[in-house]
Amino acid sequence: MSARDAILARLRSAAPGVAATAAAALDARIDTHYDTRRAPAERDPHTLAQALQAALAASHAQAWCATDDEWPAQLAARLADAGVRRLLLDPARAESAALARALPDAVAPVPFDRPIDAWKTELFDTIDAGFTVARSGIAATGTVVLAPDAGTPRTVSLVPPLHVALVHANTLHADLHAAAHAERWHAGMPTNLVLVSGPSKTSDIQQTLAYGAHGPRRLWVVIVTDPAADAAAARPAATACEDQPR
């Protein structure tokens, strides 16, 4: 037995015994706690979209709702109005391809298809915005959950001064516990999830707040709603959440 194995064996033997059912019982207590504090309406995508937008607005982010047919043209127009000229996105994603088709000639879609060392200066100096598609959203905290991959690495949501995230209303959760439970994180925790709850902000010892010191100074979130679901609930799709001024 190696010294390492001997040390680990001693630690294991000294560890207090835990009943086999303790973890399951604790999980059940946690689930009950969160389930009982949630109102039934907090499972409704309409209510979750409104809560997400309100929480994002409180964090100085812009968020608005749009249908699947409307959002590409709406977002393309907003990007052009904001002076965006080069937009970082993953053309392999359906949402990115839809946005690229809607962009005016003045806004160029740029893929992240090179090692960062090959174009670091260009990336930092010429990219105006990055576009990502969120895995899901957390309404209570105004959070979009990103799962970076090769086509949309963390750099896309970190380096450009404007981060634009698209989240589908049917992927929204009431809180972090609901997200972890519904997405079964316990069955295989993702290796890299990024939780974005507003633009980058920090403050100094005098509590002077500054935006953009450690990431994007602006965050836009497009919440894609389902008109069919709104019609079934007898409410106009536009009421899912209020639009924000440009």
From TrEMBL:
InterPro entries: FTHF_cligase-like_sf, LUD_dom, NagB/RpiA_transferase-like. Residues 53-224 form the LUD domain. Gene3D superfamilies: NagB/RpiA/CoA transferase-like. PANTHER family: LACTATE UTILIZATION PROTEIN C. This is L-lactate dehydrogenase complex protein LldG. It comes from Burkholderia pyrrocinia.
